[in-house]
Design goal:
Layout lengths: L3 E11 L5 E12 L4 E5 L6 H9 L6 E6 L2 E2 L7 E4 L11 H7 L8 H14 L15 H13 L5 E5 L7 H18 L2 E6 L2 H7 L2 E6 L4 E7 L8
Parallel strand pairs: 3-8, 3-9, 6-7, 7-8
Antiparallel strand pairs: 1-2, 1-4, 4-5, 9-10
Helix pairs in contact: 2-3, 2-4, 3-4, 4-5
Bound molecules: adenosine-5'-diphosphate (2 copies).
One adenosine-5'-diphosphate binds next to β2 and α1.
């Protein structure tokens, strides 16, 4: 598990008439191994842009994103991603959807099956192994997406507004779940949310961003509960 350094990272998009638009300006913060960091800020402040850079989907930026001192590129960071919409494949069962994340990993069939079973249990979906996505509630589908994100045992789990589409009660339940999973798995988590309360409740560190242009305007450390036992 590695330390992630985001150092003076800026990103401009080309817009009409050879003009550029600064979506992210000088973002600087670190993500300690095993910690839980949230990025909060209003719509348009550059959260998704920053996440795409961290994921390695876009390497056209200024500054440095370093994992253990090495510049991140393409696939160097082992990561799982959970989106606002579960993105499960509708023609595959829960077990198959989660198993798909292991297809390029050189584990034995038994190892893969065992890991899939363990991760279904981890998110509380025992008994739903052979269910199709349409048979799951919204909360259950997001649990499945979390299991899929973790099944390959990534260094970092990125959560992009994972609870944004859920009703208030399901959202509260899944906040509890995410915190429990973070504790038992010891995985580094980066959460993007526009819900400040959610960020403060779940994180060790909250990176507050603002628009015009996209800047980090505050960094709040929440040390009460960290390091974990
Ligand atoms: P957030 O995720 O915080 O809502 P984004 O990272 O999606 O913010 O967007 C930041 C800013 O960059 C917004 O003003 C958005 O309109 C702009 N933007 C995002 N992607 C592009 C793009 N491909 N081309 C031009 N502008 C973009
Ligand atoms: P949560 O956010 O806790 O997953 P849900 O509303 O998704 O909340 O579901 C609560 C519980 O109700 C689930 O854990 C599951 O046991 C049960 N449940 C929900 N939808 C279904 C369903 N379609 N079939 C069977 N059980 C369900």
């Amino acid at each position: 598990s590695g330390r992630l350094e985001i150092s003076s990272v800026s990103k401009s998009y080309e817009v009409a008439d050879n003009k550029t638009f600064d979506a992210l300006v000088g973002a600087t913060f670190s993500v300690e191994p095993g910690s839980f960091v949230s990025l909060v800020g209003p719509s348009g402040c550059g959260k998704s842009t920053l996440l795409r850079l961290i994921i390695g989907l876009d390497d056209d930026y200024r500054g440095d994103i370093l994992l253990n001192g090495q510049r991140i590129s393409g696939t160097s960071l082992s990561r799982g991603i959970v989106f606002q919409d579960h993105r499960l494949l509708p023609w595959l069962t829960l077990k198959q959807n989660i198993g798909l994340a292991l297809q390029n990993i050189g584990w034995s069939r038994e190892e893969k099956e065992k890991t899939v079973r363990e991760h279904i249990a981890l998110v509380g979906l025992n008994g739903f192994e052979d269910a199709y996505p349409y048979q799951l509630s919204g909360g259950m589908a997001q649990r499945a997406a979390i299991a899929r994100g973790l099944v390959s045992r990534p260094e970092i789990l990125l959560l992009d507004e994972p609870l944004g589409a859920l009703d208030a009660l399901t959202r509260l339940r899944l906040q509890e779940e995410i915190q429990r999973i973070w504790r038992v798995e010891g995985v580094t988590m980066i959460l993007v949310t526009h819900d400040v309360e959610e960020a403060i409740y779940l994180s060790n560190k909250v990176i507050v961003m603002n628009t015009n242009p996209g800047r980090v305007v505050d960094e709040i450390r929440i040390d009460l509960d960290f390091p974990r036992d």
